[in-house]
Design goal:
The structure is a homodimer.
Chain A: H1 2-12, E1 25-35, E2 38-42, E3 48-50, E4 59-61, E5 65-69, E6 72-79, E7 88-91, H2 111-117, E8 122-126, H3 153-157, H4 186-190, H5 201-215, E9 218-223, H6 226-236, E10 241-247, E11 267-271, H7 279-297, E12 302-306, H8 325-338
Parallel strand pairs in A: 7-8, 7-9, 9-10, 10-11, 11-12
Antiparallel strand pairs in A: 1-6, 2-5, 3-4, 6-8
């Protein structure tokens, strides 16, 4: 009756702008899988005794053996009648997981559901080493220890406010006056953080490349640290990747990389606001726009969507969580339609 | 057109037993959130310089600061017109994540989708410290280092075959002759493993308890190591937990715990096959059945479903992945219907 009541609410004009009343999604399939990885044999480590759960007898835990490592997790939701030509893959950024694309930290529908409602089959993955992909022992398998993101690190890094505006106490934080990040949900956002490594790019890339081989042709929307992986995945499989939409990508293929394989793979790069406040991001942006230029120089398409220049002010690096996240998504959806990616 | 073609295939009698042709699910909402956890302040650790992604300038990584730790992740899929009275929460076991309940390692629909199709709103969570819940620095926050599951460890522990039958080479493995585990997918199953700790039970329990407060009234289906957490969550909130269905739970509340709060919370415990081959599991089973008896002694309901005694032979500890997983789920669904948990 939930749907019927919702329809009745629409008919009666009940509910304000907050009421998320939408017709049911016609979902054909929900599932998940792991791709990639390898088996590593470890020896020479001493056995330990552990109690697997309270009340259970102790068991001998032998840390040696063969281990499955470096695989990657992906979950898909497929529609009964998709209107997009290709599945849409959402790739997250550093220190985060696929949760980036789900419900926003302040509880609004995220881009996963937005693009499902626009008619895309949507795949959400966790990069190798994060979330449901699992992670491997260090230093035996991963070369280094991981890094952990503090609650405050993103305040400046994600251009929500100036470094000087960060304070562990929520009431004393100072953000950019026009920021679109839902500030009251900052600590909820911090719960999405997971440890990351800085020495595992080759394994992350390998898993993404296998993922593309498994599920594409596809369109990739990628965020931040993921940008470099998606650009390289498109280079490795330009026949499989039909478009790359990079949300504030933080890296690119190495300078001098031949962009000609991407001639037929349209790219879109999306930038938020407050670059003037961040020399760090200005440098990244220059690198990325150089790469976009290299694609265009080869006769390809690499469009730049500069949100403030297009009239949207105050978007942070986490624009899929910003209060106008659906509006940003709508502009991306329109670009996809213009590029012929919808049926 | 995917659905129309599927309907046509049914009409024409195309497709064998393998064709998973079902009408679309009417999904009202898909989302996720984190619950619980706390903020920990760390100091005194030296700064390091890291390169966040190739081509990006180096940044100073300060390992000190305030960290959000010990939260838990859950994802929900809600139907337009649920036929169950309460949402169904699926809690996984040790060394695994919510992926346990999704597509089986050999690619069949798992229990998440099974119970959705039976009319339940379904929540799938990752225990604190695993998967999308993230994990915290050790030994500063978690007391110990984690343990990693080798590919072979589960062969005997999950009663798929005898310890002596394990071999890293798939062709040389020897399983129980009647096992229902999809043996060719053993290595795919190993990809679902994630590190776990043996010193974090209190934090895991705290997060589960907060989760129950947030989303219940509910019914919980719980597996293995999760059993103890669900039994204790029901004790802590007998007004919120409307039933506990424990799939081979490996632990119970401590001996002597008062079971009287559970008088109104029906429990079902489900056991697979090959207990005669495992003194370890016999001991666990005795503990668990003593707890079930304590619930009955207080006038409550604690049913035991012994699959081999009921005519289902060869089920492993991972029965939600076994080749007859839907048949096992069907018996659980029937129990829920008998207990008045469907509308």
């Amino acid at each position: 009756m939930r749907y019927s009541l919702a329809i009745m609410a629409i008919a009666l004009g009940i509910g304000g702008a907050q009421a998320q009343v939408s017709p049911p999604l016609q979902v054909q399939e929900i599932g998940s899988f792991h791709v990639g990885g390898r088996v590593v044999a470890l020896g020479d480590m001493p056995k330990r005794e552990i109690i697997p759960s309270p009340g259970a007898p102790p068991i001998q835990m032998d840390p040696n053996g063969e281990f499955q490592v470096e695989q990657m997790y992906a979950q898909y939701i497929k529609l009964a009648e998709p209107r997009a030509r290709y599945p849409l893959l959402l790739w997250h950024g550093g220190g985060l997981t696929g949760v980036t694309w789900e419900t926003t930290p302040d509880g609004r529908p995220g881009w996963q559901i937005y693009f499902l409602r626009q008619g895309h089959d949507v795949y959400v993955s966790d990069a190798m080493e994060r979330g449901r992909s699992g992670w491997a022992r260090f230093p035996e398998i991963f070369a280094s220890e991981p890094v952990f993101r503090s609650i405050g690190e993103g305040w400046d890094l994600f251009r929500v406010g100036p470094q000087s505006g960060w304070n562990p106490k929520a009431a004393q934080r100072r953000a950019f006056a026009d920021t679109r990040f839902p500030l009251a949900a900052w600590d909820a956002f911090a719960r999405q953080s997971v440890p990351r490594w800085t020495t595992t790019d080759s394994q992350i890339q390998a898993a993404y490349n296998e993922y593309v081989q498994k599920v594409c042709p596809c369109v990739i929307i990628v965020h931040s640290q993921g940008g470099n992986f998606a650009f390289n995945a498109a280079l490795a499989a330009p026949d499989k990747v039909r478009a790359v939409i990079a949300i504030e990508p933080s890296g690119t293929p190495s300078a001098g990389t031949d962009a000609s394989p991407l001639r037929g793979v349209p790219h879109l790069v999306v930038w938020g606001d407050h670059f003037a406040d961040s020399p760090f991001w200005q440098k990244i942006r220059n690198n990325v726009e150089r790469w976009a230029g290299a694609i265009r120089d080869m006769g390809g398409t690499a469009d730049i969507m500069d949100l403030p220049a297009d009239g949207l002010r105050g978007n942070s690096h986490m624009m899929m969580m910003d209060t106008n996240s659906d509006e940003v998504a709508g502009r991306i959806q329109a670009w996809m339609a213009r590029r012929g990616l919808m049926r």
